[in-house]
Predict the 3D structure of the following.
Amino acid sequence: MAPKLWTEWSMALSHMALGMVSLHAAVKTFQASRGAAAGFLLQALAAATVLAPGLDTDEDCLAGAWVATVIGLPLLAFDFHWVNGDRSSANLLLGGGMVLAVAGGHLGAEGRAVAAQAVVLVVAVTILIVAVFTTNAYGMWGGMMLGAAGLLSRLEGDRLLLLPKEDICRWVLAAGNWAYHQALHSQRLQWE
């Protein structure tokens, strides 16, 4: 009985951490960047669907996670590229996410998993590249955390470090979102 209770608490805490960090980031970045704020908000809402009573169906949770991944993450990358003058990459990332969001209904479960994995890694790498060239330490940290979350999700096995693999991925994603929020803040201060 105790391992099942621990697993439930671990899942709830990781969703709450991701939701709270993402919601905080959305509120703090709203005035400076509505796109990044929307990306953070989508991630917070996806985490909240699991915790809200009555919405805890697999279809609702999967739909929320899909939207948060293929639209929310490109919105974060969009702002990084846009502020640094790379408007074509920004538009390409966001347009690709929108196309994937629409096409998601025509993909099977494995196709959606591969597409989501590709989006996570592309966003992580592009933000990491921009952060390296602008010497934004928080952006580098966020890119590495998002990349780590993407790679951890592909590992075999259900548990890592005594916790369920999905929970560790959410904790790492929460750390990455915090770093992205700080990176956006420092990037805005640099341009002012």
